[in-house]
Design brief:
321 residues; alpha+beta; seven-stranded mixed beta sheet; two-stranded parallel ribbon; 7 helices; globular
């Protein structure tokens, strides 16, 4: 019994830390100290605590609203494995989603609601998650990254994972090839700068989404003349011929809820010599307020998890960061 005394003491300290709602970093340190005592054979819960907690998905006011406030979730109570009996998330689904557009599901909580097959390809809709199999609780999918302070779908159309694609188009700022630039668009809903990505349509291949969204948001192909479209298509053929996958998984997005969340595939398409998209005159589409080539630096502030994506791109190209 005494040989496990260090483990018991360590677990007791962890419980005290949780009760006092210490900062996540302290709790994480203590957990891994216990895991070390156990020869690296700690529980899966201990290992999972090493993951970065979602923060933007717990923003105080839900996007595009003025009075929809999330239930406050401290860092220590984000994981579903941690007991939080007083947790009462705000139930919110936007009127636009409730109206039933083609890209949105029906409310599965209503009587006689259509059956949705989660964790699989449901007809033409991909309901699988890059994080693995997610739980279904009371008919509703549960956010695999933990509590957000809000249930329902918010402004997201799908229950469970909502898949997007983010094309990160880059070029060198000068011939010295030290500072990398990427094409950024300014969102209309909150004014933040972001990667010009978008949602994957039902039955659509991600590679098609990447090209389509970039053309619509950064080059405004909708308003291009026939001659301009021919030139644009040729340049896009050259640029999008090959790309490097930067990230595939959960996105810490302010629109996320306990039952609906964003996931994406982010790919880097690099114009090494600046002779394709690097020569284009950028033109913001309907979903953007502005578009520009932006320097990639550690000071760059972007929407959702986009900062993490561009940091990875800079490191891949060995650019200044």
């Amino acid at each position: 019994m005494y040989q496990y005394l260090p483990v018991y003491i360590g677990l007791a300290v962890i419980v005290v830390a949780v009760v006092l709602q210490h900062k996540y970093q302290i709790l994480q340190f203590l957990i891994f100290q216990v895991n070390d005592f156990m020869g690296g054979k700690g529980s899966k819960a201990a290992v999972n605590m090493n993951k970065k907690l979602h923060e933007k998905a717990r923003c105080a006011i839900y996007p595009r609203t003025k009075d929809v406030k999330r239930f406050v979730v401290p860092d220590s109570k984000v994981p579903w494995s941690v007991q939080f009996p007083e947790y009462k998330p705000v139930d919110f689904t936007s009127e636009g989603v409730k109206a039933g557009p083609v890209w949105a599901d029906k409310d599965i909580r209503e009587p006689n609601a259509p059956v949705i097959k989660f964790n699989c390809i449901d007809g033409v809709i991909n309901r699988t998650s890059f994080t693995g199999k997610y739980e279904i609780v009371n008919k509703c999918p549960r956010n695999p990254e933990g509590r957000t302070g809000l249930c329902g779908r918010g402004s997201l159309g799908r229950w469970g994972p909502n898949h997007a694609a983010d094309p990160i188009v880059t070029r060198w700022k000068t011939s010295e090839k030290k500072i990398l630039q990427f094409i950024a668009v300014q969102r209309k809903d909150n004014g933040e700068w972001a990667i010009p990505g978008g949602m994957v349509d039902a039955g659509e291949v991600v590679s098609v989404t990447l090209r389509r969204e970039f053309g619509e948001e950064a080059l405004n192909t909708f308003e291009a003349t026939p001659q301009e479209k021919v030139h644009i298509e040729k340049s896009l053929d050259k640029l999008f011929h090959s790309g490097i996958e930067v990230y595939k998984g959960y996105v810490d997005d302010p629109r996320n809820t306990d039952n609906a969340w964003m996931e994406t595939v982010a790919m880097n398409f690099h114009d090494e010599n600046g002779d394709s998209v690097g020569l284009f005159k950028l033109n913001a589409g309907d979903d953007a307020m502005g578009v520009q080539w932006m320097d990639i630096t550690r000071k760059t502030k972007l929407y959702a998890s986009h900062e993490d994506f561009i940091k990875t791109v800079a490191q891949r190209h060995k650019a200044t960061w």
